[in-house]
Amino acid sequence: MTVIRSFVYVIFVPENSKTFMKTGSLIIFLAIVLTLYGLINFYIFSRAIQAIPTGTTLRIWFIIAFRLIVSTFVLGRFLERTSLSGISTVFTWTGSFWLAAMFYFLLIVLLVDLSRLLNHFLPIYPAFFFIDFQRTKSITLVFSIALVGILLIAGHINTLFPRIKHLELTIPKQVKGDKQLTIVMASDIHLGTIIGKNRARYLVRKINSLNPDIIILDGDVVDEDLAPVIRQNIGDSLKLLKARLGVWAITGNHEYIGGVNPAVDYLTKHNIRFIRDTFELIDDRFYLIGREDKDRGRFIGKRRKTLEELFQGVDLSYPVILLDHQPFNLAQAASFKPDLQLSGHTHHGQIFPINLITSAIYELSWGYKKIGETHFYVSSGFGTWGPPVRIGSRSEIVEIILHFK
To answer: Are 12 and 42 in contact (CB under 8 A)?
Structure first.
């Protein structure tokens, strides 16, 4: 998944986000990624084709279908850039599902080959496996396709019913007026072709039903390309979000991948207020600090502010809420004593067993943790990147009720 994600970054990032990158390095990186992508698919294909008897019509159709489906994601994203249409949508959906299917087919093929290697030195297969080995391979292929199909269907259904995650925290600071604040946070929405207008409307209804005082969109509001968002007029749905203290957002890495300024401009026109490497005193009760995404430097060659710079001028006698899309360096953030930090980005791996990898990479891949005086919450996100599939993780909308002294 990391390989494919990097591949999409390189091919489909607008030119104004790549101007700082050296052309030679870009070509080399692209060549490596394309080679790996091709090798993975060739490995899967070479094992699958062995299960289909030679000289049959089924074999011919399988070859054609495999080549087509491997190319759909690339074709879909390319067409989104050049000729957005129903065809590009079909290709993007098909190719997105293929990313998950490819991942699980790769795991299955690796498992089968490793078991065959083990059987060579230490026989573990029953004898009847080899009585009609061609039939055994065919059954294995059918079983693998059925298993992956079930995983994709179940994983997609899982994305359609996000949970509402409730969290109540006490902040031992005095505030003026109401001693309670209801925050509703959604991260990693990834609005675009996959997370379209209907899903945006669903999100709005769910958030509004919680009657929030303030709504926070914690980065990756849009996916790589803004064109599908504009085409579906998703901004009008976002205008329906209701909160007494407004709708606030920060940038994520995907805003930068797709071109940060057009994305921010579009969302700002639809009543979403971005807080970018600065802070706001909200309702004269609490501070909201929004960091630019960690990948800002990689995409536009400009660093984001340090925490020391951001906290200059912030009165820590007020409750302080820090928004940082990528949950790195939590201890460093805690040293500046914000009362709450909200993050996303990880998707908690999105599909098993990648959640095991994100849990190893991030100190907090998903959920709640307290370090020193700071409460941290990392959301698994509302939307999906790439495959519209979640296995081993859940989509969520987070409701946080803060009680003040």
So the answer is: no
Sheet bearing 278-282, strands edge to edge = 278-282, 286-290, 320-323, 340-343, 374-378, 367-371
Q: How far apart are CA 221 and CA 140, in angstroms?
A: 41
Which sign, positive or negative, has the C-alpha torsion 101, 38, 12, 95?
A: negative
Nearest in space to 323 (alpha carbons), one of 376, 246, 362, 365: 376
For the stretch 176-179, contacts whose Cβ atoms lie closer than 8 Å and that sit 24 or more positions apart, written own/partner, are: 176/284, 176/285, 177/283, 177/285, 178/285, 179/403, 179/404, 179/405
Domain locations along the chain: 2-157, 164-404
CA distance to 22, 140, 152, 291, 355, per residue, from 391 (Å): 37, 22, 9, 30, 9
243-297 confidence digits (pLDDT tens)? 999 999 999 999 998 889 999 999 999 999 999 999 999 999 999 999 999 999 8
Answer yes or no: are the C-beta atoms of 250 and 274 closer than 8 Å.
Answer: yes
Superfamily name with CATH number, domain 164-404? Metallo-dependent phosphatases (3.60.21.10)
H or E element in which residue 2 lies: helix 2-12
Q: Scan for tokens 């259904």, then name that residue.
A: 157
Residue indicated by tokens 């020193």: 372
Q: What pLDDT digit, counting tens, does each position of 284-343 carry?
A: 999 999 999 999 988 888 999 999 999 999 999 999 999 999 999 999 999 999 999 999
Asked whether the beta carbons of 350 and 390 are under 8 A apart, the reply is yes
391 - beta bridge partners? 351
DSSP string over 347-371:
GGGSBTTHHHHHHHHSS-SSEEEEE
Return the structure tokens found at 331.
């201890």
